[in-house]
């Protein structure tokens, strides 16, 4: 017997509200008794971190398995997505516990799922309906306060053995015989969430500003003749970038004095730093990722003209960087129960000026940083945006009868007149309308943020890796920069 899954029209990645359809292909060399064929759509967020030697854990030791205590590892697993359908037998064909003889040959069973908007690990109703999924290995050690409800995070396999977010379709062929085990097959896929609704574009900007100054090494030359000014980098407000798109940066140079020397732009580099916060129970760790978006050196671009007055602004030509998109390995910002990804944009500007006399030219390096977010670039459907603006339709909720007055010191018991009505929490509006929304329409960009969607999951033993932030040494001495700390605010 062999079983495998084939997805229909498999795109480079899936997103929220997409339909995932395919077939379970079952090949039987001989007749076989089959009880059921189940297909699951699952998403998991797993973290494994080593405990520091002699470290104190904040959790109750009785909540941690003996195996984890021996291995000195902290593990935390969250079920982000879980949908289950039975493709065989059809509803009402067989009773519970019965099996059906399937003839030898190849058999196909179609299935279809719809990707939801949000995760389900914090849904108490779902945990009660599927206790086998949320007890023991998944949530036996995790406090309920650690669950958060958010949009499904993107696939992540950048930290093998330490942290991963996987999405996959799994098929199980159940056989009634105790001597014949069930056959399973799973296939992974990449996932990128849709971007949250954003406000209309405005002219507001966020900025990072830092001054520069060239030193005078010749006592015969007046100090005021050396150029002084500031570098001003600006992004649209809010500071949100889009995957696989160029950075909408504006670079402005401003004079602080009327100098007689020409200032040149000699070097420009744009870096992206990703911070991934990994948590496993009471152990936390920060992992850094580094991308060089673009680098241009050996430049000689004049900034303004000698003799420009105080406050003169010069805008650097954006054609230097506006044709370079973000690397396709950069995923969107996200926050999950045990993982969070944030970004920082770093701008390095190298300036040069002729020195008086026979002294070599002076160079200074100005570094500016932004705290930014990155969106996927997949806009939600227009119907979803309209519903968020207008709100859900008025519900026909029956009016509760007036409560009977009672003494506050002796509140009535539940179920009696005047007692507080306890009801189950209703589903969110996003979950209610998810099945009615159409798939996201737009350009499907290339995305390779996952190394191997079908790679083996984190092992039970678990291991951890270390990640170093590798940075190329700047071509200038950063200590020569006399700027202040980076600022960020609305213009």
TrEMBL record:
Where are the residues of the annotated region Disordered? 46-71, 383-419, 458-491
Q: Where is the Arrestin-like N-terminal domain?
A: 4-184
Molecular function in Gene Ontology: protein-macromolecule adaptor activity; ubiquitin protein ligase binding
Alphabetical GO CC annotations of the entry are: cytosol; plasma membrane
Q: InterPro entries attached here?
A: Arrestin-like_C (IPR014752), Arrestin-like_N (IPR011021), Arrestin_domain-protein (IPR050357), Ig_E-set (IPR014756)
Write out the biased-composition intervals (Acidic residues). 469-480
One GO biological process term:
ubiquitin-dependent endocytosis
- Ranges of compositional bias, category Polar residues: 55-66
Q: Which CDD domains match?
A: ART10-like
Spell out the protein name for this chain. Answer: Arrestin-like N-terminal domain-containing protein
Q: Which organism is it from?
A: Hyaloscypha hepaticicola
